[in-house]
Amino acid sequence: PASEKANDYDVVVIGAGIAGIYQAYRLREMGLRFRVLEAGSGVGGTWYWNRYPGARFDSESYSYAYSFSQELLAEWNWTEHFAAQPETLSYLNYVTDKFELRSDMQFNSRVKSAHYNESDCKWIVTIEDGSAFSCRFLITALGPLSAPTMPNYEGLGEFTGESYQASLWPKEPVSFAGKRVAVIGTGSSGVQLIQEISKTAKQLTVFQRTPNWCVPLRNAPITKEEMESLRAGYPEMFERCQASPGCFIHAPDPRLTMEVPTDEREAFWEKQYNAPGFGLWMGNFRDAFISEEANAVLSDFVARKIRQRVKNPAVAEKLIPKNHGFGTRRVPLETNYYEVYNQPNVRLIDVNDSPIKRVTANGLMTSSEEFEFDMIVYATGFDALTGSFDRIDIRGENGVPLKKAWEHGPETFLGIFVAGFPNFMMIAGPHMALGNAPRGIEYGSEWISGLLRFAAQKNITRIAAPFEAMQSWTEYVRGLGTELLATKIDSWMTGVNKNVAGKTQRCVIRYNGPATEYRKKCDEVAKANYQQLDLS
Ligand code: NA7
């Protein structure tokens, strides 16, 4: 029927965030018929959803932007070194409009299911309102941190005040002024929110389970002259990002921590601590996150900073992580975060001492106290990387659910394919090198586009990863980074989320090697005319 024809595309992309927008640009360039399906009412993905007060980049804005268009680089001016969410969202809207991509996007269209049909090698994608789309190729651009999670507290629905999940923040302004506010969670989102809420709330109570090692962001406005000089440096900056392991502008120092004399080491860390951005994390000595000894000395340096900044020694000790070293989990960047705890309106509750027992109509009850709040903010994180896939009923050959194929942790080929799921490709999914996300996304999307161009030239209608290829890639990825202290602790980076059933065991969910190596491996597959794939 005509209606079915109208919904038939060469490619369907799920998600209109940084990855979906860029993939749309490439598909347009190739002249393919495609549709981008997006759950939100606009583009932006992470930067659409995470509109909570205080949300901003922790990477230098310019290093986090697209690099593919000289025109775009010439036109767009960033106003701050670490742009706030509204500016980033404007940027992504600007890109979408500049390249006229919106007409091929469909909003308020959350994908419910995607089923592979063996008889015609096509996918049938269904969205929540029941409309269906068929496509030859299905590309997921779901975002690595896009499935928010909530604690499983009893009485969650009983609270009568305002309550918000950080990444499901409403579009309408939310005022904290004069209110008694609770924040649960002290990851990057919690830290950004706490800084903001503490400015106007009557009382702010922070519920912390695991403290994180936070270091100063040191944000500043970008003047006109500075913007021009940054622009002139773009080629060199992008080259630097491409050459560094995590695609950040900071690269590790080749020295070994304990080989550097104490004074010199301290001076180096002092300099990094006082510099903007991720320097202390991404630009540290090369063994800082591998050697227990080196990491302990570094952690002690940061602990001393926290003790200097927080007046009450007991509170300072609570804010210093005891069970993981600096840089072994995502380092939140902050602006006066620690000083917030010197304010009389702010209180820190360690839920390890007094666990939250339940949510009540008026607030929260811990094992030792009943709290009344006007607002509860959940900054409780995401079901990372695989969570957004789990939320869609994805079925490959023989109706096998992706969730079943990944029940022992994700298995992929190049972080792009899953055996048994032909014509299905992932950008920024598990096992793809990400780091500074847009850098990884541009590469992944370009790689996929190269393959689609090849398929078009050769009249290929079925692209599949053999099981052996997936097994050997998965084994390779699982063997990477075993020396990293980060892989030895629980965090979203090791696939652990205590709020999600079945995600309490660590698994290799990320590509833990250097991005340079990842690209080399993927380039080799492309150069060999994709022989490792089954193409027909
Ligand atoms: P994160 O970094 O996963 O942080 C979530 C926080 O919420 C973390 O402190 C958790 O403690 C806490 N949490 C989660 N569930 C609970 C319950 N049930 N009780 C108490 N505390 C809880 O998410 P973010 O959104 O802050 O940041 C995500 C990424 O976005 C970040 O890495 C950046 O790349 C940008 P836990 O540590 O699990 O003990």
UniProtKB/TrEMBL annotation:
Q: Name one GO molecular function term.
A: oxidoreductase activity
According to its UniProt record, the EC number is 1.14.13.-
**Which keywords does this chain's UniProt record carry?**
FAD, Flavoprotein, NADP, Oxidoreductase
This protein's name? NAD(P)/FAD-dependent oxidoreductase
